[in-house]
Amino acid sequence: MLVAAAPVPEKGQLVSVRDRFWIVKAVVPSTLPLDVASGERRQHLVELSSVEDDGLGDELTVIWEIEPGTSIRETGSLPTPRAGEFDVPERLRTFLDAVRWGAIASADARTLQSPFRAGITIEDYQLDPVVRALEMARVNLLIADDVGLGKTIEAGLIIQELTLRHRVRTAWVLCPPSLCLKWKAEMENRFGLEFRIVDAEAVRLLRRERGLKANIFGHFPRLIVSFDWLKMDRPMRLLREHLPPDRNAYPRKIDMLVVDEAHQCAPAGKGTYARPSDRTTLLRYLAPHSEHRLFLSATPHNGYPISFTSLLELLDPQRFARGVKPDPLALQNAQIRRMKADIRALGPAADGRARFPERVLEKIEVAYPQGEREIHALLEEYARSRRAHAPSKQGANATDLITLLLKKRLFSSPAAFAHTLAAHMSSLLAQPREEDTDRLRDAFDRLNDDYETDEDREDAERDLLGRVASVSGPLDAAQRALLERMHAWAQSNAQRADEKARALIAQLRSFKDERVIIFTEYRDTQAWLHRLLVNEGLGGDRVRLLYGGMDAEERERIKAAFQSDPANDPVRILLATDTASEGIDLQRHCARMIHVEIPFNPNRLEQRNGRIDRHGQPQPKVFIYHFVGSGYSENAGTLDGDLDFLFRAATKLETIRQDLGSAGAILATEVENAMLGRSADLNKIQLPPRDSAGVLKAERELRERVDEMHQRVLSSIDELGITPDAIERVVQVGLELGRQSPLEPLALPPSHRGGAPLAAYAVPDLTRSWASACENLYHPVTGKRLPITFDNAGANEREDVVLAHLGHPLVMQAMRLLRAEIWARARDAKLARVTGRLVDDSNLAEPTVILDARLVIMGSDGYRLHEQLFTAGGRLGGRTGFARLNVGEVQRALAARGDEQIPRHHQEEIAAAWERLRDPVFAAMNARAAELHDRMMRMLAERATTEEASLRTVMMQLHAAISREIEAAEHGRSEQLSLFDATDSRERGQVNSDLAALARRLEEIPGEIARESERLRRRYEAPHDIAFPAALTFLVPRRFANAKLDLAGARRT
């Protein structure tokens, strides 16, 4: 006897699988042959998309016939009123708040949620990128804000908002190796988003747990991976296994690709024409597999137009092409760039303080003794001799690189100089070999890249020394003698203080108990300084070291201690190398920084300064210290002259920060010229004059935009009802439903800025699944359990309390438990989802029922096009027993004042009449859902038409621009593609490659327009919707308090 087959769901139906609720995206029948005689039935692969509020884009694929516990639900069920079980009004309002905060109206770009799911105070200007992203069908944004404005925060807001709107599920962050930990901590601590770092150890652990075939790129939706690890052979093999061979395959494997320090992926080079690097090649492979792209860089333009346009092409190939001058309007739409000075000009923040501090440069004068001046002179003599006796131009160029490396080390410390000088002398013993000097220059430039450890950087430098030595020619006797004299000096001074170190120690003593950061490029200098400070009684717990390659947990402990109130930890001096300090925020209790040496690369210098000159710095001024010779000599080739030039370059940096990328490249060249004894002129660096009318217009537009962002936040608070009291109620009710102890109210004293005491709550010891919500309630330094507050503004800059925002684990757990009540079976439900209120007679004439429900509209590809909460309702009683209300009447009824619960006899009357009322109420919900559906269909149709027209316009503009550029190149008039050295075969080959790429891109555009247009049409065609009832509210005029409602339709008395 054959068992009746379970019904197979249809596309768009609501189903229950694995105790969760899903919408069916697709049903694919098996194509395998059947054995009909045995009664075998065809199986079906069912693709599902979560409709639960906290599903955050979760998807699932099952074989329906063998998946246990599946069921088809036609719709969510209306709650059933039962006398004596009505929820008190405030309790139901709390439930609806939790549901409302989880249902994002995807089509509404005005209401924001991400600012309320961040564990920090968000500045109004930081909302501009997320608002811009919501206005884009496909997010392709270059956030080029100044160092310290909060680009990571802005990226987190975008990821959070698009995830909530179900536009993003998979998100990858591609960044320098030194920033991986920062991204993981920022996303988790500030936004409640779990990201996992992908590296060799993570691959090994996954394969041990899941087998050798497990691919880490498909294992978790949110990943962080470093450029340099991913471009290696083994990771690339895993990546190619995960990504489809067709770069046009849809849906994309990666919903959101974030590239931090994106300028490091742009083509680079010291010639006149930039060439792609390994990172460029990596991003060109990866980017086409992402739907949305977010590039972050404070210096997106490195001075090479071809490099900048290549970066723009990687960001948005539908608007930009490498070698083609970008359309100004297209660039304006794709790039967001604000400087600290622009934000400062907006006036003080809401609390009256300056938004960013003033930066003050200070000199530390050093009276260098004759011995130190002589060693500098010996290095100059050695460099001149090597350059003069170089066997070729390539050898002379290689000598220049050695000179720059040795000078940088000499200006840092005797210990650093001794290390590199010994490595150089050792490299000269190696056998000569052929080297491409252009590649040597590229290797030298890569020393400015971000390395994971200081050891990696030193290995790269040691390798470069060996390579340049092989082409710089043999030593003669005089050169060997110079090297030996320098080596003897370095060895004798490598363990003791020089004059600069003594000046540094004197400066540190003058700071007394203030915190200060001391930056150096080199681990040798760091270790040398640490020994000297210990010998001077400034060591012990007062000084800590940060360097690349140290234990990650120790690094985080030191960072937390330095960012904590000085009363919590004795650390006052932080000795840091560049490698360890990329991307760390150190501004909270430190406003002083000393540079042991001035980096020759201005970007590196600005990155250092940005550790304390950034968003969240409470002091009105930050002080940056540089060493100079007391003689202030401008004589090129002398120690004082070189140091004075470097200080003037650091001063010049302050005037070109608005265009640090391109102007910084010129500044770096002039610094190198000066260090090599060539003519150097800092006045060559002139930014184009800013039109005063244009400046005023830009300031006005920025002010208007920031004001608009502020109004967006206020509007969102009003629309969503997100207030500290509302969030507190959600947590308290959630704890009660979860059978946990309640929060204990307490008042914290005013902050150091004054004001009123802060309302806070002690969190009790929680059990079971709630226990993990307490893990981040401990102070990172003292280990003390902290209370929580729901007041965002009150928590700002306080260390004695944790902000419980919507993304905090405790709040999320409470909301999850409340929202689960929508799907709870009657026997398991903890809420009735029904309440009744007595309201003022002046506000309402007749007893009324209001139904809160949720509408979800799905595209044909399973893409969630829209969802929202809505209300429907009707008057009760009269001849028909129920009369549907229109939208305005529903809103007026909801606005009726009164929170007193209806009496027991009203509850009994409603419960008795519910069988007659259920169908009319359900019909009212469906009628309102149909109205919303029709309105949304019109809006979505308009959106589809607009997006398709915009796509076609943008791509035809690109087609025209490429055609013009190719024609100009053919006639020798190309502004960008002609900027190459015709004698350089590599640059000539790159130009030919770029021209060929433009020709291919021109051929691809028509097909891409057709393909993308079809994709847009498929997304918006044949959408289906489903409505889920959430709660019932019965409103009764107070005059009926002691009377019957007569819901059967009899005449009232």
TrEMBL record:
Q: Which InterPro entries match?
A: DEXDc_RapA, Helicase_ATP-bd, Helicase_C-like, P-loop_NTPase, SNF2-like_sf, SNF2/RAD54-like_C, SNF2_N
Domain Helicase ATP-binding, by residue range, is 132-318
Family matches, as CDD domains: DEXDc_RapA (cd18011), SF2_C_SNF (cd18793)
Which GO molecular function entries does the Swiss-Prot or TrEMBL record give?
A: ATP binding; helicase activity; hydrolase activity
Instruction: Identify the residues that the record assigns to the Helicase C-terminal domain, covering every copy.
Output: 500-675
Q: Which UniProt keywords apply?
A: ATP-binding, Helicase, Hydrolase, Nucleotide-binding
Q: Does the keyword Hydrolase apply?
A: yes
Q: Which Pfam families match?
A: Helicase_C, SNF2-rel_dom
Ubl conjugation: is it a keyword of this entry? no
Q: What is this protein called?
A: Putative helicase SNF2 family protein
Species whose genome carries this gene: mine drainage metagenome
